Amino acid sequence: MSIATVFEIALAAVVLGLAIWTIAVPETYSATVGFVAYGLLVALIWVRLDAVDVALTEAAIGGGLGGVVLLGAAARLRDAEATAAERPDRSTRLIAAILSASIAAALAFAILILPDYAPTLAPAVVANAGATGMANPVTNVLMAFRGLDTMLEKVVLLLAVVGVWSLASDRAWGGRPGPRHEADPNGVLAFLARLLPPAGIVVGIYMLWTGADHPGGAFQGGAVLASMWLLVIMAGLADTPPVSSRWLRFILVAGPCLFLVVGLGGLCFGAAFLAYPVAFAKPLILGIEVAMILTIAATLALLLAGAPERNT
Amino acid sequence: MNLARDIMTIACVSTGAFFFLAGTVGLLRFPDTLTRLHALTKADNLGLGFVVLGLLPQAEGLRDGLKLISIWMFALLAGATVSQLIARAVRRSGAR
Description:
The structure holds two protein chains of two kinds.
Chain A lengths: L2 H22 L3 H21 L3 H32 L6 H23 L9 H6 L9 H9 L1 H19 L10 E2 L10 H23 L7 H17 L11 H24 L11 H25 L2 E3 L2
Antiparallel strand pairs in A: 1-2
Helix pairs in contact in A: 1-2, 2-3, 3-9, 6-7, 7-10, 7-11, 8-9, 9-11, 10-11
Chain B lengths: L1 H28 L3 H23 L6 H32 L3
Helix pairs in contact in B: 1-2, 2-3
């Protein structure tokens, strides 16, 4: 047994243990911290499986931004948790346990009856890599071969923002999301928020650009840009924009709209919906990705900022 | 030449792993928040620093080496800022 195998077994055991601990621990805050560590370790597993694109996304979303969303939720629940002493009675918990266990069993059964060599389209993806002028097979699948899925995924993100905004009270509608963050303008947080974004913005754009041929892409780059924006907001150097602002709404719909327009163009001038003309495939895809990185960055940051709650 | 590089990598990464281990033990065993922070920064700064130093001889070119060093610098920057913020929060709340 090689060192790598020992490491992989240890990693899998720690991830499973952490998952059980996250479910079993009673405090919301501890469960959140466990979930963030779980996300980072799952990212390591994706690296071991040579799926660096997925690892980057998991680290950014599962470990980073998702963790911040859950921490915010835990902070809001802290007061309610102390007062809500009643727990679901035994039969409710028993039914929930049976339901969860049967779903887990059904999933395990479905995995076990898969044929030993699962049907795969990976060789076809590698064989057609030249069609788009990009070498990263993941970007090829996301942007070209299964472009429809990616477009709808961005629409779902947009719906999520609409869902968060709909939690606003009537009075606060059209106002700015989240509390106004106050921090010492000469303190360490403000210093970091001045020092880090220039480098972070370069890294985010680099991730988008290198995604054509290496692991990376609009989603990972957008997550980095979103975190830079949030850092500046949390340090009190900038405020969240009001949700009624036109440019904000324009950025939120830019990515999916451009994707849709290019897709319809494929219907008019090309072979099918979302079929890129071969000569312009790479510039078109890059154009869509540039619009999408802005949309993704704005969407992720606004999901974290929360519902509009003040008008000043 | 290759052997010398490999020896340096093994020595430095092992030292880094030792600091990570020591930092983790400190994080789990030290009595109050400030000393636990102290243990954590040892893992972040020295541990990651030695790991990066050990990986430098294995980098394929100047570009990869610079990327490794910048990862360490960003971790230093983030670690220093977060420790300051946590320490300040501890002092304000008076909690130990």
